[in-house]
């Protein structure tokens, strides 16, 4: 599906059909990722069952957000950003952190301390990365939407949240057993892609150049495919 979407976007000559296919493809992938995570939770045990259950709920929120986005664009004919879809995108960002964090093995004594250390490391890395992203692109977002508190908050929150999730995923990848390295590695890749994609999206929105069937959408599709692959391993 991702390959087909890439080809359609690449050859799109302004057709009104391609953006619809694009949004439906992303919606289909987020829904499929939710199902994959739920199946992974069903077959897993212990902390991995908890992790994949939380991830399934997070991805379910992403899928609901994609559905609302689609309805805003093609049924209600209103701007999808900002919109009620953002509540569910935010829910995904919030739930993804404990989902990934739970995958790390901790003994009973050091569990809380180790989790707090990983979260603090993630926040530190995210803030440093945000500074770089601000210099390269995000300052344009602030200059464009500085008077719109909600829009600027959402536009800047997504990249920061992505960076936190990515940093936590990398820290967890370094701690998991060898048999789980491929699974968490795919999640690291997925969250790395979403980080870059959300920064590009924020910049495109600020420049008023974003529209459905943008090459940016391929990033979300690739990330969802990687999450599906992680759940199916």
List the helices and strands and how they pair.
Blueprint: H1 2-11, H2 17-43, H3 46-74, H4 85-101, H5 111-145, H6 149-173, H7 178-206, H8 216-232
Helix pairs in contact: 1-2, 2-3, 2-8, 3-4, 4-6, 5-6, 5-7, 6-7, 7-8
When the domains are counted, the total is: 1
**SSE run:** HHHHHHHH
Helix content: over 70%
Strand content: under 5%
Instruction: Sum up the overall morphology in one term.
Output: globular
The low-confidence runs, each spanning 5 or more residues with pLDDT under 50, are none
Instruction: Output the number of helix runs.
Output: 8
What is the straight-line distance between the termini?
19 Å
Radius of gyration equals 18 Å
Instruction: Please provide the count of β strands.
Output: 0
Summarize the structure.
This protein is mainly α.
